[in-house]
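hey m, so remember when u said the C-alpha cells were messed up on ur end? i reran from scratch. heres the input so u can diff it against urs
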Amino acid sequence: MNYAVGSLVKARGREWVVLPDSSEDFLVLRPLGGTDQERAGVYLPLERDDVQPASFALPDPNQPGDFLSCRLLRDAVRLGFRSSAGPFRSFGRISVEPRPYQLVPLLMALKLDPVRLLVADDVGIGKTVEALLIARELLDRGEVRRLAVLCPPHLAEQWQDELRDKFHIEAELVLPSTVNRLERNAAANQSLFDLYPHVIVSTEYIKSSRRRDDFVRACPELVIVDEAHTCA
C-alpha cells in the first residue's frame, strides 16, 4: 500500500503523519502531535506488516463526557496546533483569527534569514497583528527568545494590550514614568534590556545617546519598530 504525504498511519504502537521525504519503500514519519526531533524512518520491506492506516473511533453521542474531559480535549487541540505537522506552531497560542492577507508578511518572514521586513500596508489593515504574528511564530519556533517593540509613547499601552490579550506575550513598558520602578529589580550594572525579555520602549525615551547605546548593547534578537518613518 502506498501512503500519501499527510496521511496518518499507525506503526510501532503510535500514530504518525507521513512527511514529504517519503518514498515507495521508505516512510519518513513524525508522531501525531510530536516535533521534528521525534521523526523516524520506516523501511517498508522490513516493517510493512506493522504499518497500517490510522483510524479513530467516532464520537459517541451517548457519552458526552464532562467539563474536565472537554477542557482536556481543548488543551490537547491547542497543543496539537502548536507542535503538529501544520506550518505554523504559534496558532494554538493566539487569540485572534488572522485574515488571509495578514499571513502574507508571516510567510515572507519565514523565508528570510535573518528576518528583515518592512510592513507598509494601508491604515486599518492590521499591521500590528501582522507584525505580532511573526513575533509569536519566531518565539514558538525558538528562533528568538527576546522581543522589543519601539513605538511612540502614546501607542505603548496599546501595544502592551495587543501583546497580552491576543498573543499571550507579557511585555514591560519602558517609559520615563516606569524606568525607576523597573530599575529597582535590576542588579548593579544590569541593563533593563537584559532583565526583561519582552519590552515595549518609547522612542522618545530611547533617543538619548546613553539610553540608545545601552539598548544597542543588549538589543533583543527581534525588534519591531512602529511608525518607522518617524525614526529617521
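this time it looks ok to me. The mean pLDDT is 85. if urs says something different then somethings off w ur setup not the seq
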